[in-house]
Design goal:
- The structure is a single chain.
- It contains six helices and four strands, in the order βααβαββααα.
- It has 189 residues and is of the alpha/beta class.
- It has a single domain, classed as 3-Layer(aba) Sandwich (Collagenase (Catalytic Domain)).
- 35% of the residues are buried.
Length: 189
């Protein structure tokens, strides 16, 4: 989504309580279970925290815990970038204008080895980094982006707020060893 496509009216609206989400979590790589005992529960917790703030209607969301080769192929085929990134978000290809049941929100796909590497480089708990990237991916599907510095600051402020509600430290805070971090494209700032 480009800046020209988004207006304040298009941005998600805060609600006191979000409608129920149909959340499907698929673990494609066994390494996720080494990262955290129950990756599905962790993903549900993070995704629900983001959706509770921004989705006033019932939605359908899929989160896939994959690996670097699969995410690299998706990134190459859909974004023209031939490298693995930490998280990709894909809105639904088609949404019927009138539909009974939850509105399709899209898919979030994460790359295990990149998530683990970034967490180690940034001296963060891998489970916390996973939660951050799930929130980041869901916010993309809710209309947030970071194409401009102003958009990035808005998105990061929302990420910080959602993660604080989960008891997770500011993911953009500077580390004495690594400096500032940037989840925008899975690379150091």
């Amino acid at each position: 989504m480009s800046d020209d496509d988004t207006t304040d009216e298009d941005r998600p609206r805060s609600t006191a309580a979000a409608a129920a989400a149909e959340l499907m979590v698929r673990v494609d790589h066994p390494g996720w279970r080494a990262l955290t005992a129950d990756p599905e529960a962790l993903v549900r917790r993070a995704a629900t925290a983001a959706l509770d703030l921004f989705e006033p209607e019932a939605v359908e969301l899929s989160v896939v815990l994959s690996d670097d080769p699969a995410v690299r192929a998706l990134n190459r085929d859909h974004r023209g970038k031939d490298y693995a990134t930490n998280v990709l978000s894909f809105p639904p290809a088609f949404t019927p204008p009138v539909q009974a049941g939850p509105r399709p929100l899209g898919d979030v796909i994460l790359a295990l080895q990149t998530v683990e590497r970034e967490a180690a480089e940034q001296d963060k708990a891998a489970a916390d980094h996973l939660c951050h990237l799930v929130v980041h991916g869901v916010l993309h599907l809710c209309g947030y982006d970071h194409e401009t510095e102003a958009d990035a600051e808005d998105m990061e402020a929302v990420e910080r707020a959602v993660l604080a509600g989960l008891g997770i430290s500011d993911p953009y805070a500077e580390s004495a060893e690594t400096g500032p971090t940037d989840a925008r494209d899975g690379r150091a700032a």
